[in-house]
Amino acid sequence: MVVRNVAAGSLSKRIGWEEGKELPHPIVEFYYKDDDLGDPLLAEEHIRLLELASEAQIEELKKRGLAVNEALESLMLSREYGSSISNWNSG
Length: 91
Known about the structure:
This protein is an alpha+beta fold. It has one domain (about 1-90): D-amino Acid Aminotransferase, Chain A, domain 1 (2-Layer Sandwich), CATH 3.30.470.20. About 45% of the residues lie in helices and about 20% in strands. Strands 1-2-3 form a three-stranded antiparallel β-sheet. The chain is globular, with a radius of gyration of 15 Å.
């Protein structure tokens, strides 16, 4: 799972956005960690189809990921990284 506040890495490549562009809100992405498959991006439907997690587990993962993201963003704001975690990410 990856929580993003800015366009970077594979997201920038997939949607054609400049690295470091701030997203209007954090997004959660799921990946299937398998080197032979190239760690593909998974839609929530894929996660359920492959029986990797239930709907409740997916929602809990998203909730916790966003909570960690919020805590890290608050930490970065209280430090020298500026007004947004995007400054830290692109930094």
